[in-house]
User: Fold this.
Amino acid sequence: MRRVLFGLISKGLAFTKPTPTFLPAVAIVWVDPAQVQRRLRRDARIKHWGSASPSPVSLIGGDWDFAATDIPVNQNFEACYQRFVEGQPWQAISKYQQLLDHIKQGGTVDGCKTESEFEQRYRRIDRMYETIRNERTLRTRDVESLRVCIARDGDVIHCGGGGHRLAISKVLKLHQIPVIVSVIHPEAITALQKSRSQHRGD
Assistant:
């Protein structure tokens, strides 16, 4: 999104090198959650970036943005819609039961190893929903895990963490939420700079 890149540049980040480089800031920008339609899975991030979550903001070229896939409608969004719009208890939602079954079989989900820990996590999600609904936004101090990357075409791609926050923001139809930018494709910067030059020349 062009306004996201303008926001980054206004923070004083210097996007000048065409080769991968680390940039000297952590960038929090505001995006429309409804327009975050794709994600870059952890395995793709490690393959293309060498890290699941580069920090601070990194300028990385290559074809990593082509590896992004559509966010499945039937995962966090569907579960949050069933819980917070339809009013179903978590225990009646298939995604919850699938994750709980995984824990019962000895697996780990979001750091939870026991049924008790898992139930506590979803009670925290309930409280988080109430807070976001009442405040109509996400608190900037709570978005450390909600990260995005900017593709060469300016598309904002979810790249790890904060999945329930993003889903709740969509369910509540929030207009803007704060996110942390992990990676930017250099071609997005080049396109923005070209657009700004053309605009000044008009």
